[in-house]
Write a structure and sequence with these properties.
This protein has 208 residues and is α+β, with helices and mostly antiparallel strands. It has seven helices and five strands, in the order H-H-H-H-H-E-E-E-E-E-H-H.
Length: 208
């Protein structure tokens, strides 16, 4: 009975693997491996004793930004965040916003993860629907558990993140609400100016 159960479980694992690979767009690795690879690189930077020196704060953040930028599609995130305000922008305006939003998000992400102190990252599941996928993870410690779900889409044979849902809150929806409020009450130019000021000063604020 024990051997039969082991064989049954092994077959189940193999079938699950085939389903995941078959469901994924051709030429892509499983989305969980994409997320795992990026998180592993991020944690290596955070755990590097040399980079923990306060004097290394800026170089460390730039390293984190470079690693994250490889798998985060900031243009797609910008488009989804601005929603109806994106189409009227010129190519130059779009490029400017993407760069500002990239720096803004990198700083926000860095602020959240720089307190990392050995918490465990658990990879719970992945779901694929054609060219889109969601990878569910949890950041666990003795004191708390924080759900973090990564939403990805396939682009040129690779998975790229376009949203992160932290403890049930979508990053894209959160900033869409904040940014559109600024645009409605003032102007798109005011939003850009606030983002520019925020990325230049590095002031620790929740909102731009």
């Amino acid at each position: 009975m024990g051997r039969r159960r082991i064989l049954h479980d092994a077959v189940g694992v193999v079938l699950t693997w085939f389903v995941v690979v078959a469901a994924a767009p051709p030429g892509t690795e499983p989305p969980t491996e994409t997320v795992r690879g990026t998180i592993t690189q991020v944690l290596q930077i955070l755990e590097d004793p040399v980079l923990k020196d306060p004097a290394k704060l800026k170089p460390r953040r730039r390293m984190l930004e470079e690693v994250i930028a490889i798998r985060f599609d900031y243009a797609e995130m910008s488009k989804r965040t601005l929603a109806a305000y994106w189409p009227p922008l010129t190519e130059a305006q779009r490029a400017e916003f993407v760069e500002l939003f990239k720096r803004f998000l990198s700083d926000r992400y860095a602020e959240k993860i720089e307190g990392y102190s050995g918490e465990q990252v658990m990879y719970l599941s992945e779901r694929i629907e054609e060219a889109y996928a969601e990878v569910r993870t949890e950041l666990r410690s003795d004191k708390t558990t924080i759900p973090m779900d990564y939403r990805l889409f396939s682009k040129e044979g690779r998975w790229h993140a376009y949203d992160i849902v932290v403890d049930g809150v979508s990053l894209v929806k959160n900033y869409r609400s904040q940014f559109q409020k600024i645009i409605r009450e003032s102007s798109y130019g005011e939003l850009v100016e606030k983002l520019r000021e925020r990325t230049l000063t590095g002031e620790k604020k929740t909102k731009p």
